[in-house]
Request: fold
Amino acid sequence: MAYQHTALQLDVAHAAQTLIARLGDAMTNFGNAMMTHSAGYARLQQVEALKAKTDAELAAMKIKREDIVQHVFRDLYYI
Reply:
């Protein structure tokens, strides 16, 4: 007569399933972080580009030098 123990097989399957779920979560978190970083970096580049302009160029754009950050982030924050 043969005996089969399935508890070990179920534990391995559950561990594999958990590992795959955690890897998926990690990849999702990494992707979200990359998207957040790239969006923030683009705004930082825009702030730096506006800071490099002369006061006359900013006046033509109707932006005061002290309002550059508020201008770049105007869709996120209301100040």
